[in-house]
Every structure is written in C-alpha cells, then in structure tokens.
Inverse folding.
C-alpha cells in the first residue's frame, strides 16, 4: 500500500521513517526534504491546499494519507480527502479549530470546564492596550490564528504587552492571525506536551514529552517552534497523568462529541503543570515537532494500526509499547532563527552523526544542491537519540549533533536539563 505523508519537517521525516519500516508499505512524501528521500519517494507539492493534496493522493494511488502540519488540517485537507473517498489521518476542518483559533479553543475549554489560564478577548487594539496598561501584572499576549509558534509573547511588564498588541493587531506581523488578540493570565510552572490519538470516542495515550520553546539556553530568548525535546519528563507523574486524562483529555473529547464534532486524529495538549495541577496552555491538532521525533523513536512496532484506527473510528486494538525507556532530541537551527537567517549552507557530518548508536538524524529545513545537502529553513535537523537513561540519550544526541557542521549552526546545549538535574522517575 502507498502511504502519502504531507509535510516537510522533521516530524514528517520521523513519521515517514517509522511507516517505511512496515512490510508492504511504500511511503510517498510531499514535498519532503533532502533527508526523506532515503525512506520515501518524494513528490513536489508547491501549495498544500486541500485540492492539491487530493489530486496528488489520487495520482500516486495512495491508500492512506497522513497530514503532518496544522495549516492543511485547518484548511480542510481531511474533509476534502474524505469527500474523495481517501482514508486519511487527522482531524476535519471544524475540529482543527482547536488549534487554528486560540479564541475558539479557549471558549471551548470554558464551556467544558477544562482547566486553563483566565483570559480576555479583544478585537480592538486600543481596548487591548488599555487593558494591559491597567492590569499591572505579567500577562501573555497571543495572536488568535496560526503563527508557527511565534505569535505568543509572555510579557514581563505593561510596555512589553502593549508592544505585542501593537505588533499583532496594528502592524499585523502575523497577518490575518492578528485580527483578534487573546490576553491571558501568566502561569508559572513546568510545561509538558501530552498527546492522545483518538478515534472520536476512545483514545490511545502517547508517551509524554517536554519541548524547549525558547531559542537559547536557560529558556532565554524568543519563542520558537521548539529547539529540542525529551521523553518522558519526570514532572508528568502518574498522578499528574491521571488528572490530565480525567480533567483535560476526556472532557475535551466528550465535549467535541457532545457538540457534534467527534475528534479524530492527534490531540496534543500543551500543559503547564502548576503545583501538580495540569492547566492547558493550548491545543494542537497534530503531533508536536520535535515531540513526534522523540515519540516515534520510542514506539515499538508499526504505527499504521494507530493512524488507521483513528481514521476508521476504532483504536481499541492498539496498545502502545514504549520500547526505548527514554529519548532526547536536539534541534540544529540556522543562525538567527526564529528571526531572519540565511540558507544554502553546506551541511557536513551527517553520516558520522547517524553512525552514533541509538541515533537518527531527522531532516527539517534541508535541500539538495549539486549533490550536497544544504540548509533550507530555520530548523534544519532534529538529532534524536534513544537511551536506557536520559543521560545516555543526551550524551548520544549531543555527540551526534557535534559531528554535524554548517555555517551559523545554532543549538541549545541544555535540552532535558530539568530531568537531568532531577532524580529519575516513573516512565510511560
Ligand atoms: P502557545 O502557542 O499558546 O502554547 O504558547 C507558546 C508558549 O508560550 C507556551 O509553550 C508557553 O511557554 C508560553 N505560554 C503560553 N501561554 C502561557 C500562559 N498563560 N502562561 C505562561 N506561559 C504561557
Ligand atoms: N513543539 C511544539 C509544537 O509542535 O507545537
């Protein structure tokens, strides 16, 4: 069977790598990147519109389609594939609003009693600015729509919050995503990325992971799409996990069903654990990147039954086994990311990195030029390692990351620092 994977990031590389291990599965990726050619056939996809995805799936004879990134989901790729009779993994357009509109998702949480930070919505920049100036406490300012993880400002004071309102609403730094703004209370705690894959009714819990959103060591600098992750994070104890399932996951899935829109696909809850209590920072309706790379490296066996079970409405036969006890991944980015950066830098050392035991190098922003692999995006590679312990996974991942060179290479040196400085804990 042909499985078509839509996307070009390290998340999609990890999914394609995992799917390609199945006997009888031929993976086609569109548009993919320079690394994915090793596990899949690449097809161009200049614009990932629902129509273009359906046309390509039809042309390659795909028996199943996996849509990796959020934008085509929000645009209705799954609805279009369903209308064409093509089975696909991911939520329909309506359900994808849980990610596509932060305001939709906050109002949904409020309706269903899902714990989250207090919030206000504004469609007028002057009113939003007056609110943050009068507040006198740290606030978080968010563009309503999709902004590749960069539309959020955790503001330490009123000036910073007012500046974020100005950039989002008046200067329209994120285009139409900034027509409305969400202003939230600032939560202080430790973040966890927790995913479940649902068939609309039942769900399969995935291994928890922790991302590192800030660009620089010590959680400094601007927010990015994610600079590294590891799994499992010790803060996600059995007790926190039970609370998350009972107070967040189940009410969310039940709420979507009750409103007539059962959720199929990957539901990613971004949590802040505040004194042992899970509060939702955001929903995403696809696998996290780089969390997915960490999870795929730990998952034992085929993931096709999980993805197809979700699409078909029955995941009850899927029992996840987390073969590797831990995993850790380090993102290599282009100098300047998440701001402006140069591309086209020759990447060396990929083979030496891949030769490190327990390591896979997943490509993100890479391209081929004259037989060489060159940088082609902000996040360039996700170097991912498994290990018996997080220390071992970290040592392997950094040994491999250090073997890779390109002009301007940027990485965080402290991925997993919270867990590596804490005592080991339970796993899942
Ligand atoms: P989001 O895209 O909504 O998850 O926000 C991106 C990042 O901003 C999160 O991963 C957090 O690090 C931070 N953040 C978002 N909302 C809050 C909040 N209410 N309090 C503190 N930090 C937040
Ligand atoms: N790593 C966070 C995300 O994928 O949204």
């Amino acid at each position: 069977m042909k499985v078509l994977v839509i996307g070009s990031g390290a998340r999609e590389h990890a999914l394609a790598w995992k799917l390609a291990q199945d006997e009888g599965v031929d993976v086609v990726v569109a548009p993919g990147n320079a690394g994915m050619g090793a596990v899949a056939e690449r097809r161009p996809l200049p614009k990932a519109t629902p129509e273009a995805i359906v046309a390509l799936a039809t042309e390659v004879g795909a028996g199943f389609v996996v849509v990796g990134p959020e934008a085509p989901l929000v645009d209705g790729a799954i609805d279009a594939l369903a209308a064409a009779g093509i089975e696909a993994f991911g939520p329909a357009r309506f359900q994808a609003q849980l990610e596509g509109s932060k305001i939709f998702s906050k109002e949904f949480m409020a309706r269903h009693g899902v714990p989250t930070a207090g919030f206000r919505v504004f469609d007028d920049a002057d009113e939003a600015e007056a609110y943050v100036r009068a507040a006198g406490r740290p606030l978080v300012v968010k563009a309503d729509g999709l902004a590749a993880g960069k539309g959020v400002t955790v503001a330490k004071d009123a000036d910073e919050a007012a500046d974020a309102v100005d950039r989002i609403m008046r200067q329209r730094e994120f285009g139409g995503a900034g027509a409305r703004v969400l202003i939230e209370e600032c939560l202080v705690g430790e973040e966890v990325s927790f995913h479940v894959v649902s068939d609309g009714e039942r769900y399969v819990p995935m291994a928890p992971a922790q991302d590192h959103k800030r660009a620089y060591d010590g959680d400094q600098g601007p927010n990015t799409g994610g600079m590294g992750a590891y799994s499992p994070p010790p803060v996600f104890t059995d007790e926190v996990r039970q609370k998350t399932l009972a107070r967040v996951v189940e009410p969310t899935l039940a709420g979507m069903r009750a409103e007539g829109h059962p959720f199929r696909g990957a539901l990613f809850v971004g949590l802040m654990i505040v004194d042992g209590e899970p509060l939702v920072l955001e929903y995403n309706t696809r696998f996290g990147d780089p969390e997915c790379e960490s999870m795929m490296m730990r998952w034992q066996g085929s993931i096709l039954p999980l993805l197809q079970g979700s699409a078909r409405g029955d995941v009850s036969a899927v029992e996840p086994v987390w073969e590797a006890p831990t995993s850790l991944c380090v993102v290599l980015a282009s100098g300047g990311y998440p701001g402006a950066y140069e591309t086209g830098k020759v990447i060396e050392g990929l083979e030496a990195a891949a030769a490190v035991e327990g390591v896979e190098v997943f490509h993100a922003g890479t391209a081929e030029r004259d037989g060489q692999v060159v940088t082609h995006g902000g996040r360039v590679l996700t170097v991912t390692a498994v290990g018996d312990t997080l220390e071992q996974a970290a040592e392997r991942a950094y040994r491999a990351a250090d073997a890779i060179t390109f002009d301007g290479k940027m990485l965080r040196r402290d991925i997993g620092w919270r867990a590596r400085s804490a005592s080991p804990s339970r796993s899942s």
Summary: Confidence is low (pLDDT under 50) at residues 423-428. The domain at 2-92 is CATH 3.40.50.20 (Rossmann fold). Residues 117, 140, 142, 149, 152, 154, 184, 186-187, 191, 213, 223, 270, 281-282 surround adenosine monophosphate (ligand 1) (CB under 6 Å). The radius of gyration is 20 Å.
